[in-house]
Each structure stands twice: as structure tokens, then as C-alpha cells.
Write a structure and sequence with these properties.
With 271 residues, the protein is an alpha+beta fold. The chain has two domains: 183 residues, Alpha-Beta Plaits; 85 residues, no CATH class. Helix content is 45%, strand content 13%. α3 packs across α4. The longest helix has 24 residues. The chain is elongated and about 80 Å long. The model has no long low-confidence stretch (mean pLDDT 95).
Amino acid sequence: MTRIIERPEVFLISQPSLDWDEVRRYLGKVGDRTHTDCLDWADRVQDEFDIHDGDALVEFGGRLCYRSWVPEANANVTRVREDSTVYLGNILSSGHGSVTEHANYSFIFDDVSRVFTHEMVRHRAGVAVSQESMRFVRLTDIPFWFPEWARDDGDLMAKSIKLLHEMERHQIWMADHFGLDDENVPFSEKKHKTSFMRRFAPDGVATGMLCTINVRALRHIVYMRTSLGAEEEIRLVMDDVAKLALEVTPKLMQDYSPDENREWIPEFLKV
């Protein structure tokens, strides 16, 4: 029986976690060399109620570049931006995007179609991808997502579901015809036949993928894939990603907000 997917789902399964003991050990060493209290930065940042480790990691990277933990740790620096939101806002506005690559977030996109994954794998810079393989994973059904406008079309839904049922029956028939569930069938044979069987699956079949994305790439993908010109499924999913990103790295997404069309347009494009 065809599984009709209510909505593709996003899971955030990994995000940066700083080892603050090691951060403090390093800052103590820098402070000893420069005769300054660089540990003051760690105390100040950790006291912020809304700081997240991804934001803090990027701020750490930016301050390391200029040794700007505190005034005079760098002899050329007599004052520093102490507020993290202001500091990271300056990073974004100045286009110092390389430091945002330190913060990586891992998302599972579940019950997305192969249409979605074909779009998503075009983003390779700053993105690591692992996708469920239809060469190894045999289909036993054809799970499918219909956008809301399609669900409202009764004739379309009836004919489409009938076609999906027929595709599922053909998958089951092929598995039986090839004897894939017989005893002692080598995995290599199962893989060979499963690879052939996937040719009878539609691009809309639901699958899953894991993407680990750094903030620089994440900002770009959210902007590109929530635009009105983007494909509708990836727009839906990336809207969820944008909302999650705003929760877990609010200072690095501080210039993003959705408009009335759910386009997430940043104030600072070139980061």
C-alpha cells in the first residue's frame, strides 16, 4: 500500500560543541605571552545567555586572526567589540566568510524525493553528503509526497495513487521473479538485481540523506533554495532548515528573515 507522506522532515543531529577547558588553556597561554587577561573573553562569552557553540567557535576564529580577545593582546589593537552579536555582525557585513566555515551542522532530510536529492547534491562546496542507496536498498513500496495543490485535485490523486500501486506491485513481482528472498542468494546478486529494479521507480520516490553543512554554505543554500524560483519541495524543506538554523546559530543568521513569500533574504549577501 502506497505510503503518502504528509511532509518531508528535517532532523538536526549534530552541531558544534566547544571544549571550553581547552579554549581556556589556550587563552591562558596567549595571555601569559602578551601580559593580558585573554581569559576575559571566555568568561564574557560563556556568560551570554543566548550564545551557541557554533557562534562562539566562529567568533573565536575571527578573534584569533587579529588576536583581538582583549585590547592590547595585539599591540595594534587598543579597543575591541565586546558584544558577540555586534562582533559577528561585523564579520558578516565585512564579508569575512572564511571563519564561518568552522561551524558545521548535520541535517537528516527524511522522506524527501529523488527530485530533492538531485537538487541538493549540486551544493558541494562546504557540504558533505551521504544518501540512501537504491542500488543496495531494495524498494518494497513507493512512498510519495504530494504538494498541497496536488492533494486538492481528486482526479490527479486517484490516477497517481493507482499508478504508484502498480509500480509497487511490479517491484514485488520482480523480487519474487528473481528469487531474491530465496535461501543462500549472495548479496552481490541481490545488489545486481536491486540496481536494475530501481529503474522502475519514479524520481518522486521518498528517500533519505545526511548533509553536513558549514555556515557559509548554509547561508548560501538557504538564500538560493527558498527563493520563489526554487523547486517547491526544496523550498519547503529549506524553510524548515532556515528556522532551525536561526535557533541554533542565531548570531550567524542574524541578518536572515523570511518575507511574505517565505523567501529568506539576508542583509549581507557576500559572506
